[in-house]
């Protein structure tokens, strides 16, 4: 899997994951890549900062960061006058609302286009990967351990922070 920073013709920036660079090109030319903010299909790669691995002696401090709850966004300081001119709380609220809208779109797309397999996600993902079941998009629940095992086996999965489905 590879992540690209993308930008639409309306200057919205976002990132998207693809199986490979060629998969990105194929999906872009087929019209499957669009901006999550404005639905524009005029997309280009944005400049990306390289992902540089931390020194091994910094591992301990990085591990401590895992304790930060997902619901507590961490924002780096920015030089943008737009951000600086707003109260931090209002900008944070705006970012959270935009993120929730984007995740709701992703969840809606997955629900419309993939099969729900419930708690059997890891098992069904393996069956598909090893050719024991029909290839198709699926979604469901898995534990953190199951997800790590799937990724270690080379099975492409993308954990999404979306609310669990309920019967109510």
How is this structure best summarized?
This protein has 168 residues and is an alpha+beta fold.
Order of H and E elements: EEHEHHHEHEH
Uncertain runs are 56-86
Q: Give me the number of helical elements.
A: 6
> What is the average per-residue confidence, as pLDDT, rounded to a whole number?
75
End-to-end distance: 35 Å
Which structural class do the helices and strands define? Answer: alpha+beta
What does this structure look like?
With about 170 residues, the protein is of the alpha+beta class. The chain has 2 domains: about 1-45; about 85-160, no CATH class. It contains 6 helices and 5 strands, in the order E-E-H-E-H-H-H-E-H-E-H. A 3-stranded antiparallel sheet has the order 2-1-3. A two-stranded parallel sheet has the order 4-5. The protein is globular.
